[in-house]
Design brief:
By secondary structure, the chain is an alpha/beta fold. The protein contains eleven helices and eight strands.
Amino acid sequence: MMKVKLDSNESATLDFIEELKNNPLLEGKDITLFNANDYALYLKEYENCKHCKGLKDCKNDTEGYKTELDGDSFILSSCKYKKEYLQKEKESTHIHTLFVSKRILNAQLEFMDVTTPNRKKIYEHILKFIPTIQSNSFMKGLFIYGDFSTGKTYILGCIANELARNQIESLIIYFPDLVVELKTAIATPRFEELMNYLKSVDVLLLDDLGSENLTNWLRDEVLGPILNYRLMEEKPIFISSNLDPTTEEFLSYLSITKTTNDKLKGTRIKSRLEGLVKPVELDNPKYKR
């Protein structure tokens, strides 16, 4: 039989195919001239993914995706980092914010400090709250109060992210800045738009209630209508504050003046809050330890 002499390119191609066939990952695969490059890409991206530490480190042709084998077919699938990114993107559509730092939007319930009884109580309340609202049942939110820098805002961020993870829409806002925004928007369509959203969003999270100067307008035209609507429609709310809502000091804050009429209005606001939230003091974990 006459031997066919291969040129250097053909010889290199056969060596390339033989090398692929000897790879344990491709054992039993029918590798030919027509699919050799696909198998080579599969091996290359397999090795890239083994040492990858995140999307920014991705060396594959399509960032966040890798070539995989499905029988004798090749498919493009997302890696774990891409899946995590897409999940966060999906969750972010359920969180709406006003005047809250991006750091808070990264707060995660699994990293919440539960080293004191009250912190554990807050954590357990959140765990019960999620399935309750998912079943379209009403459950009170929390009025989290305590000293500065104890993590009240962070906990609100944990709640917002946990709600988003469960496809529940929420709005988290820094209350003093919201007040400024509402004052600016008076007599414009923006004011009505904001008020309607504050009333109707699935779960409202108000951060730092009480640090602003409460006025009759703010109490009677903003806070009162929001709380009244949410109480009537059984829409939960979570609040953080430096004020203890169970004290006469808090009632005095809501009343603004000592007139009988203002005291009545302050008492009415306090009553609506009691129907919407449970007060829990956020103690300082370092102090308690």
